Amino acid sequence: MRILGILLILLAFTTSASAETLITSLSNHRVLINSNYTGTSIAVFGAIERDAQTVARATNYDVVVTVRGPRQFLTVRKKEQWGPIWINQERQKFPQAPTYLSVLTSRPIAEITSDQLRQRQKIGLRAIIDSPDFTNERSGGVDREFREALYRIKSQEGLFLEDERGVTFLTPSIFRASIPLPATAPPGEYSVDVTLFADTVILARTTTHFELVKTGFEEQIGFVARDWSLLYGLATAAMAIFFGWLANVIFRRD
Amino acid sequence: MQIYLPIAEMPVSVLLILGMGAAVGFISGLFGIGGGFLMTPLLIFLGIPPAVAVATQSAQIVASSTTSVLGALRRDALDHKLGAILVAGGFVGSALGVWFFAAARRAGQLDLVIVISYVTLFTVVGSLMLKESIREFWTKRKGGTVRLRRHAGEHAPYLGLPLRMRFYRSKLYVSVIPILGLSLFVGFAGALLGIGGGFIVVPALLYIFRVPTTVVVGTSQFQIVCTTLVALILHAITNQAVDMVLAMLLIVGGVFGAQFGARIGRNLRAELFRFLLAILLLAVGLRFALELVVQPEDPFSITAQEVRQ
Prior knowledge:
Chain A is an alpha+beta fold. Chain A has helices spanning 2-17, 109-112, 115-121, 125-130, 141-156, 216-227, 229-250, and strands at 20-26, 30-33, 40-50, 61-68, 71-82, 85-98, 101-105, 160-163, 167-171, 174-181, 188-198, 201-214. In chain A, strand 5 and strand 6 (85-98) form a beta hairpin. Chain A is flat, with a radius of gyration of 24 Å. The radius of gyration of chain B is 20 Å and the shape is globular. By secondary structure, chain B is mainly α. Classes of the chains: A alpha+beta, B mainly alpha.
């Protein structure tokens, strides 16, 4: 019975979603980092196609673009006064936190859909950070503080951001968004989720990926440092000694 | 001008790093210390991951200290025998330090151990030196003679322990035991705090063993080159956190700075030299103490566990 129920719900969901199809494309699937890389931005283009049977909607479409960077194990610590000194006391772990997280929307997220749906579907920066599976420890009042701190610090670093004017509709069914990637966003695999809304309901969803990779010299260095670490260490040491010797030769005037 | 650091995985301003290298190199050359305790916080402040900062600045220390050692060799301002004993004891101390480091990390209070060690070491060494300097200035003003020069047959009791050795260049005839003890302690503290330990060796040789100032700098730099070389290679193997591009920039800035520092250091009066070093150490110690005592602006901090696949 239960499986049948789920199937029915799924069926209902797919039929309702099939009225609109979402087609998205990224300007770049492979961003190359070279020695003068100082961050970049990636454009997302999207078109909404309505099949012949569906009538035009009375309300406009809304789009939410969520970009997640490679995962990282983060620990947030809190300093508390202990006698005369301040030391780290409590901490909370976030084992699967994205290194980069941005949410671009066509309107303020609260206007797009209900609070409940946002929490359930993890739509919006706050919903992602507040979701129960974001951390593996604790819950309740103290927990809030740590999530808040994570959000605040990462936002200051420009790695977590939400832009409620980030998605622009060029025509009622074609939109564009620009994902800002600061230079501190680490190399790795990034996922781009595009969710289409109308009248607070999710109509369609797509996921694409792009990759931020080091190239040329930067890639070589990374490779040697990882796979030939002894050689790399010796080479760095030799370089240091050589420069020390060179300086001594150059400045030999006493 | 910005350049992307392949291991730190972020861009930095070339001129800023060159300037920092020069400034720290200057102080390093002036006092015969590595300067790691100044460079590491500066790099972390720029946003470079702590592991990369600690590992990479050791390359700069190797370079600037190599220059100093070569210079000292030429001026015959290096005591090989004393240096070799310092290095040997230093390696054993380092091994103990690495072990203690891991133990403190398991206990979860590594940060606290490091900050408290910094505060204690720097304020204690700094204030002892400052006290000595002020007394020196005072005696000089009153027209008395400074008793830093050794008198024949006069020495502290611990220098007369068994296993006495003659160090010609340092004009010393002392027991090896206190020297080995010093080098063990320096190696231990160095491994624990990620520093060369020059700031302990220099005052110890000056005040405890009364080694002439000119020889102190060369010998301390010799000890620093050896221990930091080992640290650099170990960091490259275990943490893969040495950034060659960053190292290169720091080195280029550092060797120039160190040259000018060493030149000025040679013309500095010995009392002034000790006074300035005391002030520097005290200032660093107080800075760390302040960090411990003053209410932090943001009580929260984030640390990332490096997961490299």
